[in-house]
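Q: Second attempt. The first request was missing the SMILES, so the protein and S-adenosylmethionine are both included now.
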Amino acid sequence: MPGAKNPFTSTRDAVAEDTANAQERNRLWWERMPMTYADWHADDRLPVDAEEFKQIETRVFAASPFLRQWFDRMDFQGQKVLDVGCGSGALSCRLAKMGARVTAIDITEAAVALARRNARAQGLDMDIVRMDAEDMALPPASFDFVFSWGVLHHTDDIGAAFREVSRVLRPGKSGLVMVYHRASAVYYLNGLKWLLVKGKLFRGHTLRSVQDFYTDGYYHRYLRRHEIAGLLAGAGLTARRISVTQYQKSILPFIPGWLDRALKARFGMCLVAEFDKPVD
Ligand SMILES: C[S@@+](CC[C@H](N)C(=O)[O-])C[C@H]1O[C@@H](n2cnc3c(N)ncnc32)[C@H](O)[C@@H]1O
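A: Got both inputs this time. The predicted holo structure:
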């Protein structure tokens, strides 16, 4: 699309003009670009009917071997599960279909409206509420599982969000958080492409600042393993397993499947922390 606007940076610039408040910038970015797994460049990114909502869920699971395997081995029957940053609700709906009693929160009106339409279209009963992960209006120790996929690296104060995750989780219960992974091919290879091939280096950009050109959200931190371990520990949570994964598409062109899987387990863009809240 020669001459087309970059949807990431144009939304970022517009939001920065509209407010100086850090968390408002995060919220407004997502109000304008709700997560629907549609092409970020498309004019019409919003699902309209039950069929299109189901297609989003199909697309998410088709794209993520990790999510397929993880959901297959989990049992949420009768569990009270919180989905933090639900977006259009694809994963909240899957949790509800597995028998969980789901509360889904998101900082935007847009996501709450989409997730409600999604749940209604699929005949699912869920509590879907607009709420900031950094300040949840939810009672302490009220959930059996806290789930958050691709959200907390976008919030202004990630430490506050982890502390809230811990506060609402019952002692002895567990959760899963996925954030972007710093030691990833996406961070370094895409970064180098934007710096060198697209010439951003000559306009004063760094490996960190070029992320703005291809990463979603107003803020988008890429975390290292020790950083997520530190956030969990700081929130009083115990890391059970920290793993790395990526979506289905090959990490590099023209490589065999075994190499692709090995590289993704080391340099994938998703850093997944599975954790427990110790019993006091
Ligand atoms: C990349 S989308 C992921 C959506 C969903 N988890 C999924 O996988 O489809 C990130 C979502 O996080 C939400 N979000 C960002 N910061 C948040 C916060 N502080 N509290 C709650 N939701 C937040 C955004 O509004 C957006 O819907």
